[in-house]
Amino acid sequence: MNHRTLSFLLGTCLALTTLFVHAQYPNKPIRIIVPFAAGGASDTAARSLGQALSKSMGQPVLIENRPGASGSLAAQAVLTAPGDGYTLLWASASMAAIPLVQKASPFQSLNELTPISMVGRLGYCMYVPSSLPVKTVGEFISYARANPEKLSYATGSLGEYIVTKQFMKAVGINLVQVPYKGGAQAMPDLIAGRVQLNFGPFAAGLPYVKSGKLRMLMTLQSARSAAMPNVPTLEESGVQNLFTPTWQALFAPPKTAQAIVDRINREVAIALRDAALLSQFDLQAIQPEASTPSALAVSVTEDLEKWRRLARENNVAQE
Fold it and tell me: Which residues, at least 6 apart from 129, have a Cβ–Cβ distance to it below 8 Å?
């Protein structure tokens, strides 16, 4: 047997083995690494998706929370994982901005991972403690101006931080940041009045609004929410041009086989029609949205440029 024939046979065997492995996928549990602490909106959405995927894929889908560094710790774990489809990243839109604010960012573009699919979009709102003597956005602005640098704001993600920076610049106020590992961790301090503002997911604060512990001053959506029809939108509140990308999406490690990416992409689209998932998403005010891998990659690229402009305009420096 000559060298050329041997190489051909080895290549054929490798290709057949690869096809066999992909055909058997998945044959063990799948991990989705979530960059936020348990209990928040993203974590709840990821668990809902995991349950739906478990039913259709025939394997457990496990959620692993790895909060910290605005999502860098979770991203690093997936960047270095094997591209076999058994370790996935639940990413939020704000993670596209990590290279702009972290000198030690694990990536220069989130697209260094393998895009799989959009999953949905969160609705965001402006929350204040009910003990704060304000009931409208205008009253909050006046109160903050009368108490310069005495008020603080909670952030549970990079997106919440940049949105709040935009808001402060737009209305001419200055507040002190208090960072948390996730929105769920910020809520007790917000309720107690130890921090006075949070731009967070709709569902994170809604139960406390209904119980009277928080006030929702506005939503960052284009239309009023059916759940809170008396709460004005951003535009109705007189605040302009806040960039608030709120997509949630799945990514795989680099060099994940296209056959596996396509399989997960199809399964996500199926899961987003699951009645139990849709019910949970509705409770969390999450708009389900699937996409192709290429469409997700385009969104990452476009958002990075928008984040770059916002970082420059709001003096957000790398740390």
Answer: 190, 191, 192, 193, 196, 213, 214, 215
| Distance separating alpha carbons of residues 205 and 190, to the nearest angstrom | 10
Question: Which of 107, 85, 45 shows the shortest CA–CA distance to 247?
Answer: 45
Distance of CA 8 to the CA centre of its chain: 46
Distance of alpha carbon 251 from alpha carbon 150, whole angstroms: 40
d(CA 200, CA 188): 14
Strand partners, 114: 252
Written as one letter, the residue type at 186 is: A
Query: In whole angstroms, what is the distance from residue 252 CA to residue 272 CA?
Result: 19
Collect all residues with Cβ–Cβ distance below 8 Å to 295 and sequence separation of at least 6: 118
Residue 130 pairs in a beta bridge with: none
Q: Average pLDDT per run of 10 along the chain, which is 319 residues long? A: 53 45 83 91 92 95 93 96 97 91 91 97 92 97 94 90 91 94 88 96 89 95 84 90 85 97 97 93 88 97 89 77
- pTM for the whole thing? 0.83
- Cross-sheet strand order for the sheet of 197-201: 176-179, 152-155, 197-201, 124-129, 214-219
